[in-house]
């Protein structure tokens, strides 16, 4: 999938961002250089990508079901990886800020897989770390093209090589010679990564100190990959007191950052005094230039955030102030872009380069047409001279014939002017036709991109509909399970209720038995105590006879039954003795 060069917002996918670096890992697995790799090797690569992105399902098992062949080309594998693995973390509408961490991790993994073929050079100058950073820059700006059928090649455009080389040379503190670069670059048709590294090592970094070279590569890496638009010292006003503190800050397309390389008391105090070290930038943020005033700090400007919070800054000089203002304007303008900043700039440069080539081609055609006209005109002039010489010779012989020849020359000149006018009109018509053709191609390209976008949206809608159907079926199944569980619970509740009623009846019966036994026990104890206190001497009972006792309240049937059960086996004489004891006790008590 190619990057568009227009300025309208483009939703990038993670597959687009890592396609070039993935190609190097894919090419390292393609030992036969046939353009296809066995699925068994790609399964391991897919598993590593899934683990790196923390995908919970085993995505490597899906590759066996993808297509029927046992080998996959790069485009087929990229399509599978984009839709089956990378879609777990990228839904197609995520901005580059949310994808940058995954982009960095995947590029590093693909570099580890393919670096053994890229580190082999006769006279290496770049270190492995510097080579990795140049690899990231190369993959960010490179394009994929087919040299022959089914064989892809990742290479840099000459304009992008010129931009990267210019940044590297200026970071080394040297003067950039564009004429020298053009002379060298014209003999190279394709800048692949080995050719690009050999070109830099052989022409621009010879006799360079390793420390200076590492620093220059870091600057170029920060500019292109880390997207640091501006870095330097700037004064910031504290939020609670009118003091200005000098600190290092850097501008990226999504934030204004104060990098803190060491965590110490000073950095913590600065964070408290000046506020947060990461200020997010949105399209609603604005930058305002403050004119210099006598008695106030010079080179001031303010950054108004979306939350209406005001960050007051001051540059060290007016040149630095202009650079900070331009950098902040660019960062705010590109804060919500789905592509990296330099990818958009690269697309713009490629479009300008294509337009420049088209203009040069048209100019070359125009110059060739003019050369043909001049040649034809010179040939006509020579013919006229010869005709004039013959006419003059004939004029000496015949005056009348000379006049006729002069008239014929005038007619030829008039005809020549007419032909020149027609030729100019035809050339202008060709130029207009070429412009119309270019416009039609551009419109067709835009229509094709819109069609691809609509197809992608339709596919996403079909996937969402299938997911909703699965969720509804799962919900119905869970509802049926819950209904069956509810019926089982109601059945168990009725069973427990009947069990509870039975246990209540048993409990009441047991309580009645316990009460009756307690009463019998108390009666027996009372009789035993009476028997112990009564002396074994026979006394006359003062108790009146049965007829004189009057009505004695009857005992309950339960009491009589229990008492009868307790005294059922006693001899009759013991019962009489006990009655006698009771009568004597009753007499004493009445006395």
TrEMBL record:
PANTHER family: RUN DOMAIN-CONTAINING PROTEIN, SWAP-70 RECOMBINASE. Residues 578-591 have a biased composition (Low complexity). It comes from the Eukaryota. Keywords: Coiled coil. It comes from Scylla paramamosain. Residues 344-513 form a coiled coil. The keyword Coiled coil applies. Residues 527-591 are annotated as: Disordered. This is SWAP70 N-terminal EF-hand domain-containing protein. It holds the Pfam family EF-hand_SWAP70_N. Residues 13-91 form the SWAP70 N-terminal EF-hand domain. Residues 554-563 have a biased composition (Polar residues). GO terms for cellular component: cytoplasm; nucleus.
